[in-house]
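for the recovery benchmark. tokens below, seq after
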């Protein structure tokens, strides 16, 4: 997925920096990815560590990580289920079509009419199978992630779901084809949570804590609300032109709250090594982070220059610089 803040291009660098600090052999380490997003960093470490603990407050992220992180053994006949779902006759009264496709009269155009109907068709069947215990949890999250990523490929947006495009773009006009969200297999078991990070931190412990919180006022709940709607598939009245769900703003996106929330997280962390990804455009300055983390142990910093995220081709015109800096703040905590 084309995802704001994705660490796909930085994951190898992050892994190397972690190994420089912790050691090359991570096989007995518990690694926590606290603001997991699409789970790229957790996936990078999945075969390297004893256990991944993954968490994110967004439900779509929880679903992705239940598949990519928690699923670790082969699922029997999973491709049979993919084909059956992909071949179903289309429903025309589902929630996505009724509220997010132009043909229904919703005046919203997040998907073409047929793709909206197909999302509803597949999601309804997955829900039915789960409720009738025809599929187990592992297969459920595999199928749901497969739908989520396949739907994202044909979304009529400029990468994020804060708004839809007035006309159906080329990629959105293609038929949705359900493709398998294949996960990395491993011998070890892993845990995935859907909790507030500052609450979860009080309940867990481990060796390596990786933090990648929101760094500005951008709300992931708003930018990816359609993905939450597909994963939850609940009933609500979409709000406004973009059909938003109700959501709670993260304290990490509030200038007046971020410092205290971050310090609370560091203070309560029962992990020896803490790594924070943050960039030079965040609500907290580099010095702010250093001041807070230094209270709790030995602090250091690594910096990486990289190309900024572009939602579409016009994005670069809004910014004078196409490059930004990723800071990897490092703390060896003393207790």
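predicted aa per position
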């Amino acid at each position: 997925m084309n995802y704001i803040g994705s660490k796909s291009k930085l994951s190898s660098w992050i892994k190397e920096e972690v190994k420089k600090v912790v050691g090359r052999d991570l096989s007995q380490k518990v690694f926590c990815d606290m603001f997991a997003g699409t789970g790229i960093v957790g996936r990078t470490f999945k075969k390297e560590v004893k256990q991944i603990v993954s968490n994110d407050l967004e439900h779509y992220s929880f679903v992705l990580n239940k598949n990519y992180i928690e699923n670790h053994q082969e699922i029997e006949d999973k491709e049979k289920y993919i084909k059956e779902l992909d071949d179903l006759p289309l429903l025309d009264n589902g929630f996505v079509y009724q509220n997010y496709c132009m043909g229904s009269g919703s005046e919203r155009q997040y998907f073409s009419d047929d793709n909206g109907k197909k999302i509803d068709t597949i999601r309804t069947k997955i829900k039915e199978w789960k409720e009738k215990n025809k599929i187990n949890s592992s297969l459920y999250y595999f199928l749901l992630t497969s739908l989520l990523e396949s739907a994202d490929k044909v979304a009529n947006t400029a990468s994020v779901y804060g708004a839809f495009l007035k006309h159906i773009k080329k990629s959105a006009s293609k038929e949705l084809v359900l493709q398998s969200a294949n996960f990395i297999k491993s011998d070890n078991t892993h845990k995935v949570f859907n909790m507030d990070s500052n609450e979860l931190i009080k309940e867990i412990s481990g060796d390596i804590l990786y933090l990648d919180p929101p760094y500005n006022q951008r709300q992931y709940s708003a930018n990816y609300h359609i993905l939450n709607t597909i994963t939850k598939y609940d009933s609500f009245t979409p709000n406004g032109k973009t059909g938003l769900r109700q959501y709670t703003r993260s304290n990490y996106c509030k200038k007046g709250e971020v410092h205290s929330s971050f310090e609370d997280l560091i203070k309560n962390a029962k992990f020896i090594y803490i790594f924070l990804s943050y960039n030079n455009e965040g609500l907290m300055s580099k010095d702010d982070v250093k001041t807070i983390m230094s209270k709790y142990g030995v602090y250091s910093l690594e910096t990486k220059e990289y190309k900024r995220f572009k939602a579409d081709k016009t994005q670069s015109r809004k910014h004078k610089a196409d490059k930004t800096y990723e800071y990897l703040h490092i703390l060896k905590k003393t207790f």
